[in-house]
Specification:
Helix content is 38%, strand content 23%. A hairpin with a 2-residue loop joins strand 3 (73-81) and strand 4 (84-85). It has helices spanning 13-25, 42-54, 87-95, 114-125, 144-157; strands at 3-7, 28-31, 73-81, 84-85, 102-109, 129-137. It is globular. Strands 1, 2, 3, 4, 5 and 6 form a six-stranded mixed sheet that branches. The mean pLDDT is 89. It is of the alpha/beta class. It has one domain: Flavodoxin domain (Rossmann fold, 3-Layer(aba) Sandwich), CATH 3.40.50.360. It contains five helices and six strands. Helix 1 (13-25) packs across helix 5.
């Protein structure tokens, strides 16, 4: 059974977690990249990112032809923006619709609203078998080693 880790990362937190998961599970990994990058600094970072979630934006992805049909297990990671998942993940979900997969989710955030984000992701992803979810608060700033250990343990426990 093949596993895919697909993620979007603005500041490196989701990329950090995704890399650990992919290595631990010997999974393929896809970093979602947008044609027009999101702002990474200042007020615009929060404003534009939040607005993209509120308006359910689907920015054009550089990634093309991700063949999700060849995977039994899909792990999706995203930062939490405005209580929701990032616009690039929204693009992925809408471009590569799939059902009947075993799906695990991970979030990186600066604080609250992770449960709302998990619920929104599951609703958007539809009829799949959800086998795990986990969230991290700024793992690169608040305990990189602990986050790495927690991620490995979580990945090991996934029921694929």
């Amino acid at each position: 059974m093949k596993t895919l880790v697909v993620f979007y990362s603005l500041e490196g937190n989701s990329e950090f977690v995704a890399g650990i998961i992919a290595k631990k599970l010997q999974a393929d990994i896809v970093k979602l990249e947008t044609v027009k990058p999101f702002q990474t600094e200042g007020f615009g970072k929060f404003f534009k990112g939040g607005m993209s979630v509120v308006f359910k934006s689907k920015p054009k992805l550089k990634n093309q032809n991700v063949n999700v049909s060849q995977y039994d297990n899909i792990i999706i990671g995203t930062p939490v923006w405005a209580s929701g998942y990032s616009a690039p993940v929204n693009s992925f979900i809408n471009q590569y619709k799939f059902t009947g997969k075993k799906v695990a989710l991970f979030l990186t955030s600066g604080g609250p609203d992770v449960e709302k984000c998990f619920a929104k992701l599951k609703k958007a992803l539809g009829e799949n078998d959800y086998v795990g979810q986990i969230d991290f608060i700024e793992p690169l700033k608040k305990g990189k080693d602990e986050a790495a250990r927690t991620t490995e343990k979580w990945a090991e426990g996934l029921k694929f």
